[in-house]
């Protein structure tokens, strides 16, 4: 009996002479294409709401979603930190029943000298010259004019009697994440109010309320794969909608869909507020970044910048931790308003991911954890703690699927015990191939301990369905070096 079988050339062929069929089952290699998706509000433009669209640049985003839109600003920050990841955007309409956020700054006095002040709207710096003799009303008017002149900002501004009023252009709770500050770089940066002029704190006059309904955009995602899903909507309803889309039962991580991916969001609040919010979440497919109230970026800008770096670093090597990755353009809070190590330990114990700040003011990734904290019985569970492990699992399962579908996609199946021809598979043959593929993953630094993997791997034909193979697949994921503990047991003399 021949060990060779053909898929196309018939065995009873009598017509001469030379025939060739191609078989690519041994030629395929795994080459993952990790894509990102940003959810955000549009202001105008031709892009249809709730329909994901490929977007390669900030200019393209402004044309499609509106030059002053949240989503255009997100694309700009994403591309500042990641030039190569394929980026898709899902434009959303503002919530019809929402409320726009309003913030105010009150100025008093008369300028006794000339200075240059700067107001920051998120990452955008707007310098304003103040002349000697300018009144508080004139200062507020000048700042409002500077804001109005920049048509890409997500806010409008007005001044009256020394009060600068800044209003989000869009409705919704996300407007509370618009960062506004004065003279962030201080005297060293050439930013200060002149003597005689005093500015009050930034005050929330009206809190933004409402969130877009994500049902439409989730339905339109279809079965397209997005490894990194960034959303500025961190309210419980929005996160719950995405949780349902991502879940292991019928969602993207289910056996039936196998699409995978991970959701990233951010929440700006006090330590107590972040901790209280974190313990209400429990989703291995979502990461929420905890932001200090005075961090120098709008929440949606931060999300885009951080997702860009997470995507770039994990696309380079999915098992390496993303720690130390620079979150480009984001300005650190003042030194006395940054999270301390004690506070970050609290956040990381409450399902909230963290960043840290260098002495140079650069904001960097510290640890990206998921919100998963407890199992179905309410007991503490660290199995899904690190978001990198989630991406590793997706990588391993896609690698496994590629190998199996390439090599055994049209095979007959029989029991072990006899030599079989090409095109027929046995459990031992499948097991040998799975072990070989696992060794390849081990060499890539994705998994480890192939000896124990092979010993615990089970491949068998189903007892009730002879056309089905059941596999117990026990990968050991490579871990990340996160803690380096040293006991310095010094000597004064050996």
Number of H- or I-type helical stretches: 11
Number of strands: 23
Describe the largest sheet.
6 strands, mixed
Sheet with the most strands: spatial strand order: 2-3-1-12-13-14
Anisotropy-based shape: elongated
What share of residues are in beta strands? 15-25%
Attribute tags:
27% helix; elongated; alpha+beta; five-stranded antiparallel beta sheet; 3 domains; 11 helices; six-stranded mixed beta sheet; 494 residues; Baseplate Structural Protein Gp11, Chain: A, domain 3; single chain
Descriptive account of the structure:
The chain is of the alpha+beta class and about 500 residues long. The protein has three domains: about 240 residues, no CATH class; about 110 residues, Alpha-Beta Complex (Baseplate Structural Protein Gp11, Chain: A, domain 3); about 80 residues, no CATH class. It has eleven helices and 23 strands. The strands form seven sheets. The chain has a six-stranded mixed β-sheet with strand order 2-3-1-12-13-14. Strands 4, 7, 8, 10 and 11 form a five-stranded antiparallel β-sheet that branches. A three-stranded antiparallel β-sheet has the order 6-5-9, covered by helices on one side. A hairpin with a 4-residue loop joins strand 16 and strand 17. Helix 1 runs antiparallel to helix 2, helix 2 packs parallel to helix 7 and helix 9 crosses helix 10. The model has no long low-confidence stretch (mean pLDDT about 95).
């Amino acid at each position: 009996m021949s060990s060779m079988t053909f898929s196309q050339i018939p065995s009873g062929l009598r017509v001469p002479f030379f025939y060739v069929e191609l078989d690519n089952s041994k030629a395929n290699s795994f080459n993952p294409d990790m894509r990102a998706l940003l959810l955000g509000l549009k202001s105008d433009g031709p892009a249809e709401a709730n329909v994901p669209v490929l977007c390669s640049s900030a200019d393209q985003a402004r044309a499609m979603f509106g030059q002053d839109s949240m989503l255009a600003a997100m694309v700009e920050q994403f591309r500042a930190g990641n030039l190569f990841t394929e980026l898709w955007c899902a434009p959303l309409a503002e919530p019809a029943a929402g409320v726009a956020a309003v913030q105010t700054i009150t100025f008093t006095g008369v300028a006794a000298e000339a200075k240059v002040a700067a107001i920051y709207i998120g990452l955008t710096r707007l310098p304003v010259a103040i002349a000697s003799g300018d009144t508080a009303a004139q200062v507020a008017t000048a700042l409002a004019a500077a804001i109005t002149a920049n048509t890409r900002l997500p806010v409008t501004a007005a001044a009256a009697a020394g009060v600068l009023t800044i209003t989000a252009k869009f409705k919704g709770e996300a407007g509370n994440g618009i960062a506004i500050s004065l003279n962030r770089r201080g005297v060293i940066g050439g930013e200060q109010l002149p003597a005689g002029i005093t500015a009050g704190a930034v005050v929330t006059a009206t809190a933004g309320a409402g969130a877009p309904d994500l049902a439409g955009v989730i339905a339109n995602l279809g079965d397209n794969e997005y490894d990194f899903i960034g959303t500025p909507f961190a309210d419980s309803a929005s996160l719950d909608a995405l949780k349902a889309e991502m879940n292991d039962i019928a969602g993207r991580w289910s056996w039936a869909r196998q699409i995978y991916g991970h959701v990233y969001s951010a929440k700006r609040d006090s330590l107590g507020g972040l901790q209280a919010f974190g313990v209400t979440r429990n989703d291995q497919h979502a990461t929420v970044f905890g932001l200090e109230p005075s961090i120098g970026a709008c929440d949606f800008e931060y999300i885009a910048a951080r997702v860009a770096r997470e995507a770039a670093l994990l696309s380079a090597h999915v098992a390496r931790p993303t720690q130390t990755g620079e979150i480009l353009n984001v300005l650190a809070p003042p030194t006395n308003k940054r999270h301390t190590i004690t506070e970050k330990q609290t956040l990381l114990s409450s399902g909230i991911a963290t960043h840290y700040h260098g002495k140079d003011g650069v904001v960097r990734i510290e640890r990206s954890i998921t919100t998963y904290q407890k199992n179905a019985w309410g007991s503490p569970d660290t199995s899904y703690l690190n978001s990198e492990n989630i991406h590793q699992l997706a990588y391993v399962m896609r690698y496994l699927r590629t190998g199996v579908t390439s090599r055994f996609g049209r095979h007959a199946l029989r029991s072990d015990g006899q030599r079989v021809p090409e095109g027929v598979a046995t459990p031992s043959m499948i097991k040998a191939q799975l072990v070989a593929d696992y060794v390849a993953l081990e060499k890539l630094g994705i998994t480890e301990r192939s000896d124990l993997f092979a010993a615990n791997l089970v491949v068998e034909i189903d007892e009730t369905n002879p056309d089905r193979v059941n596999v117990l697949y026990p990968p050991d994921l490579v871990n990340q070096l996160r803690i380096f503990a040293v006991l310095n047991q010094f000597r004064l003399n050996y």
